[in-house]
Amino acid sequence: MGICASSKRVEQERECDENVVYVMDEQCGGGGGAGEGGEDGRGAAPAACRKVASLYSQKGKKGPNQDAVILCQGFGMEDGVFCGVFDGHGRCGQFVSKLVRDYLPFMILSHRNALFLGDDDDGPAFSDASPSSSTDGSGGGSSPAPAQLLEEWREACANAFEAMDKELKLQADLDCSFSGTTAVCAIKQGRDLIVANLGDSRAVLATMSDTGYLRAVQLTTDQKPNLPQEAERIKRCNGRVFALKDEPSVLRVWLPGEDCPGLAMARSLGDFRLKRHGVVSEPQVAHRRVERGDLFIILATDGVWDVLSNEEVVSIVCATPRKQHASKAVAEAAAQRWRTRYPSSRVDDCSAVCLFLRDQDWGSSVAAAKAKAAAAAARAPHGHC
């Protein structure tokens, strides 16, 4: 499949935990291990992983857990990180999401390596040995401009998603006619952050001002049929977009002459019967330079975002005493909200990855910023405006 990792190694880690996978570069301590959020909760994440991110996947009440999450350390460079959340749907959704989870990260890196080598045949590969592995840009080489970096990663992600879709179609024992998965991924390379999104999972950034004001910044767009540009593309390809009478607020994608499958997203991996009718596998890719106030990124499936706002999720993470429990707190809060808001509905699978962007505890950082702002306000002269 053209990936840059041993499929045997990925399979070994998947056996430890069906829904949560950690992959560590050999130089970062080897081995991986079980995640904190599988259905049976077996094992624990390596200590190095817990410092970088928190992962959790909670099974809902709709059948098998169709969500899958992953963290890869040493991704592309010594301190590089890849994390992703995948929400499967359809009869084979739980198998599609895990297959994509296991292979897509390495396919992205493979395509990025190919582009890097193509730009400079005599230069080093995009790996730990690359000058760009320095987090402060002082590693002996010059970092590409943000526009160039974004374009390179956009092409690598687009190529990898297309290749992944083709691989799904070649799986003889996996029928993806009406099954597929979303994919939202964050790639951290030093201070550069690349986010690729396909479907209706979401990435949200928590950032704090110098005065201690905490903001939730949505980094992705939910690619649903209610977006005019998405619906227009589907209709141009003879797909139909409409909502059912019992859920008038949820637009779905339907085949031209059949009232199926009713897909609630406009882009996905898999869902091959709809690929001829406007559902595409091209991700939207964005770049951000990590700033001093950026605290963490939350990637989560729609089981979380359907019931919790961006601001609520950020607040839940900040209120969690221990960083490694952040994603579990988010998933459990979402499950509880499902039960209280929709008591007659089945709770959806809820999965999240929280990628930490700074080493120190954000709770103390927020408190320090607020104390600084209060002190500044106290020193300010009082008088009439």
From TrEMBL:
The keyword Transport does not apply. Its cofactor is Mg(2+); Mn(2+). Residues 125-136 have a biased composition (Low complexity). It comes from the Eukaryota. Residues 125-145 are annotated as: Disordered. InterPro entries: PP2C, PPM-type-like_dom_sf, PPM-type_phosphatase-like_dom. Residues 52-357 form the PPM-type phosphatase domain. Keywords: Hydrolase, Magnesium, Manganese, Metal-binding, Protein phosphatase. Its EC number is 3.1.3.16. Gene3D superfamilies: PPM-type phosphatase domain. SMART domains: PP2Cc (SM00332). It is an enzyme of class 3 (hydrolase). It catalyses: O-phospho-L-seryl-[protein] + H2O = L-seryl-[protein] + phosphate; O-phospho-L-threonyl-[protein] + H2O = L-threonyl-[protein] + phosphate. GO terms for molecular function: metal ion binding; protein serine/threonine phosphatase activity. PANTHER family: PROTEIN PHOSPHATASE (PTHR47992). Belongs to the PP2C family. This is protein-serine/threonine phosphatase. It comes from Panicum hallii var. hallii.
